[in-house]
Give the backbone structure.
Amino acid sequence: MIQLKKRAANILLAVGLVAIGAILLLANLEIISLEMEFSWATIYPFLLAGIGLKLWGDSLLKQGGSWTIGSFLTVFGVLLILDRFEVISFHFGDVLRLWPLLFIYIGFSIFLGGQKTRKFEFDVNGASYHEPSSGKRRKSTKMLIGDHSYNDENWKVEPMDLWNGIGDYKFDFTRAFIPDGDTPIIVRGWIGDVKMIIPNNVPFRVEARIKTGDIKVAGQTADGLRREIVYETDDYQSANRRLSLWIDFNIGSIKVERV
């Protein structure tokens, strides 16, 4: 393990030295200019690339992390850095132009034998999540890119297990028909925003996790890296009609509010 850590550290050091050397070389050849105004717009691309390299390195060391998210953030950050040095034109809003990376990730997953997807289910008390032990039916969808909205008048709430590569989710439970009993809803993805509006008279429990981004749940906030909020209304345990929510995204924002 020590040798592996040293090897990973050497790789990251080598990548950093190559990047610095390349930037200085291009500056000396007057291909790029190092004279740039330092602001958040010029700093955050370096942070994205750094976070990406960290996640990538942690994945190589088997210490968590994610090679897919790490490599995506690294590529995204490097492209933004090249834009700041006026080598190419690439802005934050151009992130969707990187969608071909999804095919690369899928190809690597197939080549490496794939990765087993974990499924979650709420227990009867809503206190924890575990592998499903029964054949309880729930709506399950998987998409690589796309937005999802649940805000039609009187739309029916049912158990759901949703996954999305890149895209946003919007749930308006004030316009929904919520049946009696416990309704579990699982929302997962790589990059995206999740917004849920829940009426005050509906008890709920939510466990929200995000690796990079912010979470806001009923007045509680958390932002930064590897954040989590677990919230439960006072009447959740005794309620005959309730929502059980589990939200997990790598990058983005999660917002759950009561109205």
